Structures are given as C-alpha cells and as structure tokens.
C-alpha cells in the first residue's frame, strides 16, 4: 500500500528562490496546457457545427492532450528557458495526469483547473532532480547541475521514492511530500484471508475492539478507555479560531489585491495551519496510543462524512412560506464535526495499526448510538441525553459513547463471523486496503443528529 508523507523542509533563501521559480514555471506550463486544451475543444466544437468542415472527423479523437511544451517558450516567456526542461515537462505531465486521475475516479479527483499564483503552489520533481544524501538532507537539481541542499524533517527511514513534491504554503512554510510504500509491520496475510482465518477461531470477544468516534469524546473504546482533547489544547484551539475570525473580518473590509489585505490573509492562513497542527497532533498521539493497546482487530463505524457535513436544506410549508431550517445549528454542527477530524482519525489509526500488524475494519454505522449493547433493542428514547444510555427494554445503563463502542464491537464480530461463512464474498465486498466497506448501509442524518450535544430540535433531518 502506498502512503503519502509530508514533512516540513527549510530551503535557504537562494534555494527557496530557485524552487519558487520552478514552482511558478510548472504552474505557467500547466495553465498554458489548460488553455491550449480548452481552445482545441472549442475549435473542434465549432468544426463539428460548421457544414463546410472538411478535415478529419473531430469526434474520433475528442480529447487532444499531449505532452509537448516547447511551443510555450516564446519571446514573451524568456524565463521558461532558464529552468531545466525536465521541470517544464513535469508540469505538463502533471497536468495530463490530473485528467487521467479525474477520468479514473471523478468523485475523488476534480477536473484540473487553472492555478492562481496565490494558491498553494508546488513543484513536482522526478528522480533525476533529487538525491537523498544523508538523513534529513536532499540534494536538489540534476547530478550535473545541483542547485542546493534542502534540509527537511525526517521522521523515519525513507525508501527512495520515485518523485518528490515540494510545496510552499501561503503562510511561507515549505513542505516536502512523497508517496512511498507503507511501512509494513510483521508479515501479514491478505486482509480477506485474515478475516476468514479469524472467523474460525474461538474467543473473538478478546480479539476485537470497537471504537466510537464522536464530537465531545473524540474516541471511546469498548474496553472503557476514552480520549478527548486536553483542556489547554482546546483553549489554544479556540483562541486561534477567535483570532482567525478577527483576521477574516479585517480581510473582508480590505481592498482586493492590496498588500495590506494580502498580509492579513497570510495571517489567516497561518492561524488555520496552527489549528490544523493542534488537531493533527492530538489525532496522531491518540491513534498511536490506541493502536498499541488494541487487540488484533479494531472496528470503526463506516461514517458517511460527506453526507454528514452537508448544508441544511431550505424548508417551506404548504403555502410556500419559508420556515426555519436550523441552518445556524447545522453549520455549528458541521464545524464541530470538522474540528473533530473524524476522517483523519480513521486514516491515522489505520496507519498506526498496520505498523503493528493489526487491522482495521469498518462496520455499518446505522443507529449505533441508540442500540442497546446488551439486548440489541434500538429506540431513540434509549438516549435521554447526550451522555447517558438507558435501555427502555432491559434497563441497561451506560455511558452513551461506551455503549456505542460496544455495539460497534458486536458488529465487528458479526462481520468477521460472516467473513468465514460461505457467502462471504457477497457480504464482505472488496474495499480499499485493510478496510472492509459494507455498501448500502450508510448512516442517516437522523442517526447523526442524536450524537450532538446541545441541539434540542434539529430540523435538518429529512
Ligand atoms: Zn437493552
């Protein structure tokens, strides 16, 4: 499995200038390719419409995209000739790859767009343009013409990657990122085979744990341990958010394109980056702590995060009058969900588990917060409030998050047992990596809303 790594790097001013130049050239070439393509498509559209068209059938090759770039080196662009040709070629190849990624998986990769100078820009370096010379140092440039040595933060041993991406964020931080084979733990069977082998074993109870992800308690494990961000980290988090709001307000008053407004926007971006790093720090530490204590299999809910963080739908009554739809509450909830970093938590946890030779499975998430972990009774009234769970049938009482974690554990065990049975191929569809995904059973907005604390009457649920 390939995993992306991203670390800070610190180019000296001279190298930073060269990298900025390369970055800009790749952007220009990519944008030029984009314009060229659009022009071609437009011409072809006209050609199809025109009755006097006598050339080749434009529909036979409807998507003209090649990797030529020498046409962009003109009198107006002398600076393109100053960078190595490989940089320009990479810019074109990258743009083309953007399209092929898009066609392969349109829901994940958007269409390539024109890039602005103000976006986070990056330069893609292929193998001939860099060499790792010692831990934490990479030499940039061709072997014949090295342009400088780039120090970076090296957290682990790096198997030589085929390419590097060096990017500069708006707030002036440089990052080095690359994809590399995941550091595999002990030799492992394929996940499918592992699940099937587990299914036959006794004492699954001790080999599986469930984790409930939430907004108030960030993670609750079925063994009773819970994880939430510490108070001082939370306070810093909120302080930064407040500051960011202030900068955003200030930027809104500024004149577009002015230097002062740009400065304020830079400060905004910096706040965002600090917020993200506080969150990331917490999630990384939590997931490695959980992974160390985890049994062989860890089960998580398969949350439909995209669906959960949609905007509230507009609401009308029969006469067409607009009603309150709880948009403000919903956007507050969306923010809380985003702040909890549920998606990244799953990714980090999976990485941490794999490193130790353990595995992660995803189980259906529907009503996990309302189901009784003892008798299986499911009812909204089982949750009198955010914290408590009280079964209306058997009277089982527990912390709501811990109860949900136990329900998830039960579902995990059921999933493993079904993997061992004959029709497992149908019931355990193929997923990505270690993750098993059960299709068609996404959580409804209704099951999500009950996990939120302070909302009394959510009206966005359809
Ligand atoms: Zn019960």
How would you sum up this structure, described in words?
It is a single chain. α1 crosses α2, α4 packs antiparallel against α5 and α5 crosses α8. The C terminus is likely disordered. The chain has a 5-stranded mixed beta sheet. Strands 1-7-6-2 form a 4-stranded antiparallel beta sheet. A 3-stranded antiparallel beta sheet has the order 3-4-5, covered by helices on one side. It has 462 residues and is an alpha+beta fold. The chain contains 11 helices and 16 strands. The chain has 2 domains: 180 residues, no CATH class; 210 residues, Nucleotidyltransferase, domain 5, CATH 3.30.420. It starts with a strand and ends in a 13-residue tail after the last helix. The site of zinc ion (ZN) has 8 residues, from loops. The site of zinc ion has 8 residues, from loops.
* CATH class wording of the largest domain: Alpha Beta
Structure summary, number of beta strands: 16
CATH topology of the largest domain, anyone?
Nucleotidyltransferase, domain 5
Small-molecule components bound: zinc ion
Distance between the termini: 39 Å
Mean pLDDT: 80
**Rg of Cα set:** 26 Å
Largest sheet: 5 strands, mixed
Which ranges are low-confidence, i.e. pLDDT below 50, for 5 or more consecutive residues?
422-462
User: Approximately how much helix is present in the residues?
Assistant: 40-55%
Strand order of the largest sheet: 10-9-8-11-14
How many domain modules?
2
Provide a count of the helices: 11
What is the strand content? 15-25%
């Amino acid at each position: 499995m390939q995993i992306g790594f991203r670390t800070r790097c610190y180019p000296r001013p001279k190298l930073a200038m060269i990298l900025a130049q390369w970055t800009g050239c790749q952007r220009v070439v990519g944008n030029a390719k984009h314009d060229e393509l659009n022009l071609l498509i437009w011409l072809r559209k006209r050609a199809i419409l025109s009755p006097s068209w006598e050339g080749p059938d434009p529909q036979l090759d409807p998507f003209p995209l090649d990797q030529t770039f020498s046409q962009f080196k003109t009198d107006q662009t002398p600076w393109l000739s100053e960078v190595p040709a490989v940089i320009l070629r990479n810019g074109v190849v990258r743009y083309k790859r953007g399209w092929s990624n898009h066609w392969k998986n349109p829901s994940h990769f958007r269409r390539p767009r024109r890039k602005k100078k103000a976006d986070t820009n990056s330069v893609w370096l292929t193998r001939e343009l860099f060499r790792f010379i010692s831990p934490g140092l990479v030499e940039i440039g061709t072997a014949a013409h090295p342009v400088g040595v780039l120090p970076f933060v090296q957290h682990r041993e790096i198997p030589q990657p085929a390419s590097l991406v060096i990017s500069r964020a708006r707030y002036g931080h440089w990052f080095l990122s690359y994809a590399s084979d995941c550091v595999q733990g002990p030799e492992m069977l394929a996940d499918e085979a592992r699940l099937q082998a587990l299914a036959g074993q006794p004492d699954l109870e001790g080999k599986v744990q469930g984790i409930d992800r939430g907004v108030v308690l960030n993670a609750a494990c079925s063994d009773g341990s819970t994880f939430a961000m510490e108070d001082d980290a939370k306070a810093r988090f909120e302080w930064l958010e407040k500051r960011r709001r202030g900068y955003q307000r200030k930027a809104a008053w500024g004149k577009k394109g002015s230097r002062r407004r740009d400065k304020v926007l830079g400060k905004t971006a910096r706040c965002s980056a600090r917020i993200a790093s506080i969150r990331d720090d917490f999630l990384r530490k939590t997931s490695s702590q959980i992974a160390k204590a985890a049994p062989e299999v860890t089960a998580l809910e398969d949350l439909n995060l995209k669906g959960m963080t949609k905007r509230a739908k507009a609401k009308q009554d029969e006469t067409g009058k607009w009603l309150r739809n709880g948009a403000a509450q919903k956007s507050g909830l969306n923010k809380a969900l985003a702040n909890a970093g549920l998606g990244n938590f799953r990714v980090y946890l999976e990485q941490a588990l794999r490193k130790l030779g353990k595995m992660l499975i995803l189980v259906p998430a529907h009503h996990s917060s309302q189901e009784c972990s003892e008798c299986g009774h499911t009812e909204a009234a089982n949750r009198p409030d955010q914290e408590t769970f009280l079964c209306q049938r058997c009277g089982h009482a527990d912390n709501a998050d811990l109860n949900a974690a136990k329900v998830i554990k039960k579902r995990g065990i059921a999933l493993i047992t079904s993997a061992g049975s004959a029709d497992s191929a149908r019931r355990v569809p193929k997923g990505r990596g270690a993750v098993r995904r059960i299709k068609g059973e996404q959580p409804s907005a209704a099951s999500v809303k009950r996990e939120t604390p302070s909302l009394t009457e959510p009206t966005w649920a359809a």
